[in-house]
Automatic annotation (TrEMBL):
Pfam families: UDPGT. One of its GO terms (molecular function) is UDP-glucosyltransferase activity. It comes from Sesamum calycinum. InterPro entries: UDP-glycosyltransf_plant, UDP_glucos_trans, UDP_glycos_trans_CS. Keywords: Glycosyltransferase, Transferase. This is UDP-glycosyltransferase 71E1. Belongs to the UDP-glycosyltransferase family.
Amino acid sequence: MKLPIDTLIGSYTKNSPDARVKVVELPEDEPTFTKLMKSSKNFIFKYIESQKGTVRNAVAEIMKNSRSGRIAGFVIDMFCTAMIDVANELGVPTYMFFSSGAATLGLMFHLQSLRDDNNVDVMEYKNSDAAISIPTYVNPVPVAVWPSSVFEDSDFLDFAKSLSVGPILQADADKIEQEKQKFSEIIRWLDKQPDSSVVFLCFGTHGCFEGHQVKEIAVALENSGHRFLWSLRKPPPKEKVEFPGEYENSEEVLPEGFLERTTETGKVIGWAPQMAVLSHPAVGGFVSHCGWNSTLESMWCGVPMAVWPLSAEQQANAFLMVKEFEMAVEIKMDYNKDSNVIVGAETIEKAIRQLMDPENEIRVKVRALKEKSRMALTEGGSSYNYLEHFVEDVVNNIS
């Protein structure tokens, strides 16, 4: 389903790794998207809801042209739960692909259970300093790190069997045609740096900061003395729903003379081939928004993180990494990009120094987790087995 915003989906689907994967592009409905965007906070969900008829017709066409005339089921993510209705109409099961971690899923289920089974109004916890016990966490989880979506008036999803499969990574996904030149330039710069000497700063697809915060980060990097690779993105216009863009000249937001003073130790870039960067031996630390994909990539590559969550479930992910696993350094765990709070250079510098300390125990733990994550994907590993169960379930539906 195409959205009137650049999601780079087209670039990925054109390079589908398997001929058996057929991509069906649904027509773009920009008038509906624009109307909902201006009138609703949760416009993405409502837009997808409005497209049920289009999806129903597309699936009917697929069934009509297939040999068996049947489909095994729907695989959807949490933004597309409206399509469960379409699957039910067709009499096929729905499989939910939950792209965050199992601990966050447990948090969402537990809060839903409190409301449904115990008549607890979760809204009463909003702005509270409380911390409650969650079955998927060892420590009580502070309300401040709960996903903001739990305070919205909507059901999550009914309880269902879960299969834990991961990490799900695509190492070559970053190599989109129009970015190859930038990709090569970044890797060439990393090739010149000593092993484990570079701190990489990247805040995901949506992650960006306004000018004052950018300057604090720059001061912290310069004062830390560590080599750095910084993915600096330009915030989109506030009146538009767009992803962060590229600066034509990053000097406009950086402290005067910063690029000249750090020319031997640092590199400021726009878009970053994150997986390739984290896989490079020169990278020794990762300052991240703690999105789950970034967290998985960090663990897979054995690169410790300093967490700076910005939105969604990222605070819960940060809590998991810092307090539960003790595998990350905290910058500001309850940060919210809409709160207008500026994290000072001293706080950021302190976290970077901790992160890059070769004696820090988190490095040993992250290296061990790197090996375990690989074992999970080998034959007999947990993710391998769960994926096998999923395939068996799908096959049983069409046999």
